[in-house]
Amino acid sequence: MKIKEHCNWEDLAKNKPYSPLLASDGILKVDANDTPTPEFWQSGEEDLDALLSVATTITGRDVSLTSSLDFGCGPGRLTLPLARRSLNVVGCDISPAMLNHVRQNAQAAGLLNVTFVTPEALALLSDGQFSFVVSLLVLQYIPRSQGYDIIRYIMRLLTSDGIAALHLVPAPPGEALRQLVRIMAAWSRLTTRLATDNRTDSPNRMQMHMYDENVVHREIGRAKARLLARIHAPVGDMPGVLLIVGK
How distant, in Å, are the alpha carbons of 98, 105, 111, 128 from that of 108? Predict the structure, then answer.
C-alpha cells in the first residue's frame, strides 16, 4: 500500500510533530509543538474514551480491544491510550521520523505491546488482523484515489466482529462534476505553460481532500462490512464525518 506524499511529512515530523488541536467550538486548545504537552496526551485519552463510548452505545456491546490498529498514528496521541487498553496495538504512519517519535513515546510510557509499521508493511498482513481500527484526522490529507483503496484495505483487516472508526471530510453534492471541471481547467493551463516556467508548490502545504461518500460506502460493502453510524464531526470550518463500521 503506497501513499503518495503531497507534502513533506518527514520535515513536519522533524519540526512540529505534535499537531495543533481544536476544541469543539473551533478554538485552538493545543498549539503545534516539537515536544508533547500534557494537554496533547490528555486530548488523546479523552478522544479515545469518547470514541469507544459511542461505539459501545451504537453496537450494544463493548468494543473488543484484543488487537487494535491506529492508522496515521503520528506521534501516538491515540496509539498510547490504545496500548493502555488493548492487548496488542499496531501504529501505522507514512513517516519514518514520525514512527521514531511514537516509538520513543511508547518506550517512555513503558508500553511494550505496540508495533510500528509503514503502510507498505501493513499491506503485507493477511485479512482479519484487528478487532478495532481507528483513523482520525488522517484521510483528509490523503488523495482520495488512494484513500478509497486504504479504506477498503482497512475493512479487510477487521476481524469478523471488528469495529472501525474512520474520520473523513465528505464531498458536497456535485463535487464530482466540479472536480472534473477543475481537472479540465488544470490540463488546459498545463498545455499552455512555458517550458521555462519553474514554479513549484510549497513542499509542506496541507491540501485537504474530500471524499465521495457513495464511493466510501461501496468500498465498505466490497469488504463485506457495513456502516453502523455516521456522526457529524467537523474539522475547524470544514465539514467532517465519523463513520462507525462493523463486520
Answer: 15, 5, 8, 30
Instruction: Report CA torsion sign: 143, 148, 149, 151.
Output: positive
Question: Tens digit of pLDDT for each residue in 119-139?
Answer: 999 989 999 999 999 999 899
Q: Report the DSSP pairing between strands 21-22 and 28-30.
A: antiparallel
Domain 9-172+206-246 has CATH 1.10.238.10: no
Q: What distance in Å separates the CA atoms of residue 60 and residue 163, rounded to the nearest whole number?
A: 12
Look at residue 234 and give its three-state secondary structure: coil
* pTM score above 0.70: yes
Checking 200-204 for CB contacts under 8 A at 24+ apart, the result is 203/7, 203/8, 203/11, 204/7, 204/8, 204/11, 204/12
Three-state SS for 76-103 is CCCHHHHHHHCCEEEEECCCHHHHHHHH
Supply 214's cell numbers: 457513495
The full set of domain ranges for the chain reads 9-172+206-246
> What is residue 132's three-state secondary structure?
strand
